[in-house]
Every structure is written in structure tokens, then in C-alpha cells.
Write a structure and sequence with these properties.
The structure is a homodimer.
Chain A: E1 3-4, E2 18-24, E3 30-36, H1 38-47, E4 51-54, E5 59-62, E6 71-78, E7 85-91, E8 106-107, E9 112-115
Parallel strand pairs in A: 2-7
Antiparallel strand pairs in A: 2-3, 4-5, 6-7, 8-9
Chain lengths: ~120, ~120
């Protein structure tokens, strides 16, 4: 039994945004977290090309539009509270603007910052 | 070369919070996303028992304190923008308050809501 998905049932914050986590679909790596508004979420679902909302530029941000590091949507999931999105995606190249595969490359578990991965070759 | 981690270098939002993603350390499953303030992050790093900030109750929320579904921290990472946390953890039982293993059990990729997993047996 499947109910039709209604974007208005999601809980967007006061700025009209919802956090979206991108996970590489086959390896399980968590690549990045960014924000979506209604328009970017609709674009992502329609085109299967992941599109965020850039809070700094205040504009739609189709991931990889300039860098070529696009994200193709495989599956989009929402959480129990309907206030967070998890996307399984296929990432081309680096998810991170630092040219690293993912953004979570700094470990701080034991009181020190340790860099886990280096930037990819261009 | 490891620099000492200073919590004040993180970017907390206007409410003093930062999003924290919990990922099962050995399977790679993304279990949930919740929020931390400085105090909960410090408690998490010190005790290795994951502690969030409950926005609804406005109090520290040591995950599993009442349910027994605790999360033991294995590794805590921050992203390039220093405004999001990824934790590799070991989850006892259900991460979700619905008694499901994880919170992202609703798939909406193709226009319909599809429930991916059922609640665990008590």
C-alpha cells in the first residue's frame, strides 16, 4: 500500500529549508550534508540530479553544474519526523569543494584534529 | 600533525545547535540525524555515549537513557564547513523512536511513500 508523497507534509524550517544527507549508494560513505527548499527537492526528484539550495548564494545549486561533480539520485528517503532527508546517490568525483571525496574528512574523536583523506588528483 | 580540537571553531546556528548524523560504524547504515549544542557535544566526546540536545524538550538527551537504545561513539568527524557532525557509532537496538532500526524508513523516490522496514520486536 503506497500513499502519494506530498511535499507539504515535510517539515521545513523557518527559512523554508530541510537538511539533506548524501550517501554513496554502493559503498555507504556519507559524502556531505546540505540544505534543500521545496523547489530544489522537486528538481531533485524530477530530474534525478541532486539539487540543493545554496544558503550563501541564495540560489538553486545543482550539484556539479560547474565542477562536473554531479550526484545522480538513486533513492530519496525521509525520516520519522519528516524533517530530514537521506539520499542514496551516485557521486561523480569529489563531493567536497576541497576536492576530497567527502566532506567529513576531519576526525576530532580524541581531542585532536586528524585529517583522514587528501584532495583527489584533478 | 594534529591540532587540538577547539569546539568554538564549529559553526553553531542561531539557536546554538549543530546537526549530527549517526551512522552505524560497521554496516554504514545512516541511522538518524539529530541536533547537538556545545554541552551535548562535550558530553558525547567525554563519555563516548552519544548525547543530543532535544529541541522539543529543551534538555540534554542521552540517547537510550530511558529506552536502553544507547549509542556508543566510535569516531566523531566534522565537515569542511565545520557546521555538521558525522558520528560513527554502535547502536543498541532501534535508533528510531518508532522501534525501527533507523529513522529513514520511508522512501519517496517515485512519487509514492513506501515503508522500507518494520518496527523491531520488543
Amino acid at each position: 500500500m503506497a500513499a502519494e508523497f506530498d511535499i507539504e507534509t515535510l517539515k521545513f524550517d523557518d527559512a523554508g529549508l530541510i537538511p539533506a544527507i548524501a550517501q554513496q549508494h554502493d559503498t555507504g560513505e556519507v559524502l556531505m550534508m546540505a540544505w534543500m527548499n521545496r523547489e530544489s527537492l522537486k528538481a531533485t526528484l524530477t530530474t534525478k540530479q541532486v539539487t540543493y539550495w545554496s544558503r550563501s548564494r541564495q540560489e538553486l545549486w545543482r550539484k556539479g553544474a560547474t565542477s562536473g561533480h554531479m550526484q545522480t539520485l538513486k533513492s530519496l528517503r525521509i525520516d520519522c519526523d519528516r524533517d530530514c532527508i537521506l539520499m542514496l546517490i551516485d557521486q561523480i568525483g569529489a563531493a567536497c569543494h576541497t576536492m576530497r571525496r567527502h566532506c567529513f574528512y576531519t576526525d576530532v574523536t580524541n581531542g585532536n584534529e586528524v585529517e583522514l583523506i587528501s584532495p583527489m588528483e584533478p
